[in-house]
Amino acid sequence: MINPDKHIRKAFYNRLTAAGLQVFDTAVPKSYEPGPKYIIITNQTQVDDQLGRACTHRDCTIVLDLFVLQDLSYVSSAVMDDFYEQVMNLIDNTLQVENFQLHSIQRDGTPRNMPVNTGTLSILRKVITYRLRLKELTHVEP
């Protein structure tokens, strides 16, 4: 049995970075200054569904935390809307997860908007949860 978590993270990371987006696993490193738009891959869950000896299905979730940093002199939610749309178009129905057959992928519920203002920046934040249904690929020995 293979733990799908790292394979799911890798699939999301590769798909998003191939399009030129900044993506981080868990957090932005302290020594790194991110650009004005970036994504953090955060929480994951999984539930096993054993359907016989050779067939293992999993229901998994992964959370993408989208950030748009803007100077307080110019704040536009349209920038986040475009960023969110770009991510949706890259992920929805196009993702492939190594060692697994992807039965379905969908956004789970409505994305949560969580804006924050600092003394100098407006930080637009949108949290997206994706739900995946996977089947582990098994290799039969000859």
Helix/strand layout:
Blueprint: H1 5-18, E1 23-25, E2 37-50, E3 56-71, H2 77-91, E4 100-107, E5 112-113, E6 116-117, E7 121-136
Parallel strand pairs: 1-2
Antiparallel strand pairs: 2-3, 3-7, 4-7, 5-7, 6-7
Descriptive overview:
- The protein has helices at 5-18, 77-91, and strands at 23-25, 37-50, 56-71, 100-107, 112-113, 116-117, 121-136.
- With 142 residues, the protein is α+β, with helices and mostly antiparallel strands.
- It has a single domain, classed as STM4215-like (2-Layer Sandwich).
- Strands 1, 2, 3, 4, 5, 6 and 7 form a 7-stranded mixed beta sheet that branches.
- A hairpin with a 3-residue loop joins β6 (116-117) and β7.
- The longest helix has 15 residues, at 77-91.
Brief overview, please?
By secondary structure, the chain is α+β, with helices and mostly antiparallel strands. The chain has 2 helices and 7 strands, in the order αβββαββββ.
Corresponding CATH architecture: 2-Layer Sandwich
- The CATH class assignment is Alpha Beta
Q: In sequence order, what are the helices and strands, one letter per element?
A: HEEEHEEEE
Straight-line N-to-C gap: 19 Å
Structural class: alpha+beta
State Rg: 17 Å
Percentage of β-strand residues = 35-45%
Q: Number of domains in the coordinates? A: 1
**What is the number of E strands?**
7
Outline type: elongated
- Which oligomeric state applies? single chain
Q: Please estimate the helix content.
A: 10-25%
Biggest pleated-sheet summary: 7 strands, mixed
Low-confidence parts, pLDDT < 50 over ≥5 residues? none
Number of separate helices: 2
CATH topology: STM4215-like
Mean pLDDT: 89
